[in-house]
Design a protein that fits this description.
The protein is of the alpha/beta class. It is built from eight helices and 13 strands.
């Protein structure tokens, strides 16, 4: 029977050593959700093909919400919610607090060696074996991280804890080595600075679409989950130990229709978009362009060229039901590229 996630005491992770030579390393899948896992039908199929000792699941949902046979068909989700979860609001420090709670819980298991932070709208693009081999072939974390010279979210009040030259930006959907997971969960200096000085602007009800309109001019706007992990790793001098990209695909083109008071959001893949062709187009991506840095990131892992993404978002439940009958047509696609 799977162990139910429980509240974890605060402690320092540095210096812990475990003997792993007799047991296979595990992947930790850490989900952020408000309540239900809408794509459980796809994840159930994904985990059904895997031995339970090869992975762990942790879910941060709203306080008091629990996963049971009555609200999820995915057996791997049952009783995997954190018991010390908090209320999370997009764009607030509560988001990165929830991420740290997930990491703290996942680090309780010494066999967890890679840690995926995923949203409830994420789908796997491949089967477990491929995902396992992909991340375990590399000694690096996969963290989308870049310097945005046009970014105005840095707050001078963060000094001296966070200097502007260490300020980074990127996607919150990361894949971490155990070393880096320990650094984030054990951080006691950078996180408080984000809580105090990195806060989003709350726009009024008559806001009409431009988050930089006259109402917000002169006011500081900061989204913690776009900066925290990237900035912390930069401060710790660990950027040489990361691949500067995410493993989770999001489509941002023409996303204005998904823009609201909270700002820009990626395109949502609905029933009509959920085709094998769509999945294969995502699987075929081999590089990511960062115009702000004039940099093209050619995707690799463990010194070998690879396709870029293992997961994709944002997918609706209707999209998941369409894909469930097509998974066998794409999950085992061979993504390896010729050297």
């Amino acid at each position: 029977m799977k162990r139910k996630a429980t509240a974890s005491p605060r402690w320092s992770f540095e210096g812990q050593q475990f003997s792993l030579n007799r047991t296979k390393s595990k992947l930790a899948f850490m989900f952020l959700t408000g309540h239900n896992m809408a794509l459980d039908i796809l994840w159930n199929q994904f985990f059904e093909e895997v031995e339970e000792h090869e992975y762990s699941v942790y879910i941060h949902a709203r306080p008091g919400y629990s996963f049971s046979k009555g609200n999820t068909i995915c057996r791997s989700f049952i009783n995997r919610q954190l018991n010390n979860s908090i209320l999370v609001e997009w764009g607030e420090a509560t988001m990165i607090r929830a991420e740290r709670l997930l990491l703290t819980e996942a680090l309780q298991d010494p066999l967890n060696q890679r840690f995926f932070l995923l949203s409830d709208s994420c789908i796997p693009l491949y089967n477990f074996t491929h995902i396992y081999n992909y991340v375990m072939s590399s000694q690096k974390s996969f963290v989308d991280s870049f310097v945005d010279k046009n970014d105005d979210q840095y707050n001078i009040l963060m000094e001296p804890v966070i200097s502007e030259d260490k300020w980074r930006k990127g996607s919150q959907w990361v894949a971490l080595t155990r070393k880096h997971a320990e650094v984030i969960a054990g951080d006691s200096t950078v996180f408080p600075s984000f809580v105090d000085h990195c806060k989003k602007i709350n726009l009024s009800d008559n806001w009409k679409g431009d988050p930089m309109n006259n109402e917000t001019i002169g006011r500081h706007n900061c989204i913690p989950d776009e900066h925290y992990i990237q900035t912390l790793l930069a401060i710790k001098g660990l950027e040489g130990e990361i691949e500067r990209r995410t493993l989770t695909f999001s489509r941002w083109e023409n996303s204005a229709k998904d823009q609201g008071q909270n700002g820009w959001h990626p395109v949502t893949f609905k029933f009509a978009d959920a085709t094998v062709q769509t999945i294969k187009e995502i699987q075929a991506i081999t590089n990511v362009r960062y115009e702000i840095e004039s940099r093209t990131e050619w995707c690799s892992a463990g010194g070998h060229r690879r396709h870029c993404f293992l997961f994709a978002r944002k997918f609706t439940r209707a999209a998941a039901f369409r894909l469930i009958d097509q998974v066998d047509q794409y999950k085992s696609s061979d993504p390896d590229l010729a050297e």
